[in-house]
Design a protein that fits this description.
Elements lengths: L4 E12 L9 E9 L2 E7 H7 E8 L3 E5 L1 E3 L18 H16 L2 H17 L2 E7 L3 H11 L2 E8 L10 H15 L5 E7 L7 H14 L3 E5 L3 H11 L3 H7 L7 E5 L5 H10 L2 E4 L1 H6 L7 H6 L4 E3 L12 H16 L7 H7 L2 H7 L16 E5 L11 H7 L6 E6 L2 E5 L2 E2 L4 H20 L1
Parallel strand pairs: 1-4, 1-5, 6-7, 7-8, 8-9, 10-11, 11-12, 12-13
Antiparallel strand pairs: 1-2, 2-3, 5-14, 14-15, 15-16, 16-17
Helix pairs in contact: 3-4, 3-16, 12-13, 13-15
This protein binds ligand LTUXU72L and zinc ion.
Family: Belongs to the metallo-dependent hydrolases superfamily. MTA/SAH deaminase family. Belongs to the metallo-dependent hydrolases superfamily. ATZ/TRZ family.
Keywords: Hydrolase, Metal-binding, Zinc
Cofactor: Zn(2+)
Length: 444
């Protein structure tokens, strides 16, 4: 009899969707995990003979896939969920969101709001998120404490905020944070210049130079609305994307959030520079900002990833819902049912997000050697029957509540629908206190 090999965990299920290249679905396969990495994916029968596991989990009629990657959001804005509805972007920001942030955002707000977001994200299948918010040190610490992967983008704006006094202060604090988390397996840092309209040329140029020096990504809201493009032409004589390119800010390290307005020149710039686009369909629809032409971008070879944006403009962080919205909006806006295919949408929510953040050597697909960031989705419920093909099923039928298990770097975060590391009772009480205070202030 041949010797069996020792592994930490062996997880088996009816389907495994590794999200490598062609979107193949493996039937009755197992994933072997040792320490924080995937070591093998093979038929369950083979795995039973080949491995001696400390822990085995047979998930039956479930599907294992890479944890979802929410490529753009503002986690702590969960505390502002539902504040200012049925408004366009600038009215929503100027009349409701920015006044509330000015009054309430501090470390405690960011800690509680980020915990609320992490609970929702882990509960609905996200194992890695990008965040652009004030007090990114608190975001990084909270993510690390709760065992979820994060790209924390530190804000850069022309003006002072509750987090700092201006661009130089933001750079200094952001880079110090990068130094502190350099060896973390879960946390990476990015520059987060908020938008072209909240940054003058100097901080944008400096962002480009510093990001190059320290080799970090840059995330920026860009071409969110037609008004933003018109204002830029009026104030700078250039469309925002061209202005950023001339300031040296468009490159493979750049993550452009929204891009609902894309003309031929913008498309060429995205192609030539290798910048990524982060699509947030639900926030774009809710604020009636426009629709990002995702099929045109993908056809041109631009990497498109998916994000929810903040819970105040969405109003949830469920990436399964976001995938469905991306597919439906992608088809409707191009009047082509063959556009925004399910497998492409799944790529946007997994491997493409990892590529945009420069962490695709670690996560985004299930492959030996990669980190064990895995989710299990229950496709056995009567409401999900019948299942002809799991790939379109995941995009057009599934919602985040069907996620039963998740692991980040091999560690369990959600088991049978139960979050493993969170005091939800205490969190609920703190959130209620924030709601009362914020609501009262918003009325005045
Ligand atoms: C500088 S921290 C992030 C900043 O962005 C604001 N914000 C949230 N959603 C959007 C959006 O869709 N477009 C532009 N800005 C947005 C958030 O409230 C923070 O102030
Ligand atoms: Zn945003």
């Amino acid at each position: 009899m041949s010797e069996t090999a020792a592994v930490d965990k062996l997880i088996s299920a009816r389907w495994v969707l590794p999200m490598t290249n062609d979107g193949t679905v493996l039937d009755n396969h197992s994933i072997a995990i040792t320490s924080n990495r995937i070591t093998d994916i093979c038929p369950t029968e083979t795995a039973r003979q080949k491995y001696q596991a400390q822990e085995t989990l047979d998930l039956g009629n479930q599907l294992l896939m890479p944890g979802l990657i929410n490529a753009h959001g503002h986690a702590a804005m969960t505390l502002l969920r539902g504040l200012g509805n049925d408004l366009p972007l600038m009215e929503w920001l100027e009349d409701h969101i920015w006044p509330a942030e000015g009054r309430f955002v501090d470390e405690e707000f960011v800690s509680d709001g980020t915990q609320l977001a992490i609970a929702e994200m882990l509960r609905t299948g996200t194992t890695c998120f990008s965040d652009m918010y004030f007090f990114p040190e608190t975001v990084a610490e909270t993510a690390q404490n709760h065992g979820i992967r994060v790209q924390a983008c530190f804000p850069v704006l022309d003006f002072p905020t509750n987090w700092g006094s201006g661009p130089e202060d933001y750079f200094q604090k952001g880079l110090a944070l990068h130094d502190r988390v350099r060896n973390s397996n879960l946390v990476t840092i990015a520059f987060g210049p908020h938008a072209p309209y909240t940054n003058s040329d100097e901080p944008l140029k400096r962002t480009a130079t510093l990001a190059e020096q320290v080799d970090l990504p840059i995330q920026i809201h860009l071409h969110e609305t037609a008004g933003e493009v018109q204002d830029s032409i009026q104030n700078h004589g250039l469309r925002p994307t061209r202005r950023l390119a001339e300031l040296g800010l468009m490159s493979p390290r750049t993550q452009c959030v929204h891009m609902t307005q894309v003309d031929e020149h913008d498309l060429n710039l995205l192609k030539e520079t290798g910048a990524h686009v982060l699509h947030c369909p639900e926030a774009n629809m809710k604020l009636a900002s426009g629709a990002c032409p995702i099929q045109m971008l993908m056809d041109a070879g631009v990497n498109v990833a998916l994000g929810t944006d903040g819970a105040a403009s969405n109003n949830n962080l469920d990436m399964f819902g976001e995938m469905q919205s991306a597919a439906l909006l992608g088809k409707l806006s191009s009047m082509d049912a063959g556009a925004a295919k399910a497998i492409d949408i799944l790529r946007m929510a997994t491997i493409n997000g990892a590529c945009a953040m420069g962490i695709d050597d670690r996560v985004g697909s299930l492959e030996p050697g990669k980190q064990a960031d895995i989710i299990a989705v229950d496709l056995g419920d009567i409401l999900a029957q019948p299942v002809y093909d799991p790939v379109p099923h995941l995009v057009y039928n599934t919602n985040g509540r069907q996620v039963t298990h998740s692991w980040v770097a091999g560690e369990p975060r959600l088991i049978q629908g139960e979050l493993q590391r969170m005091d939800l009772h205490g969190l609920r009480e703190r959130v209620q206190r924030w709601q009362i205070a914020i609501n009262e202030a918003d009325q005045h």
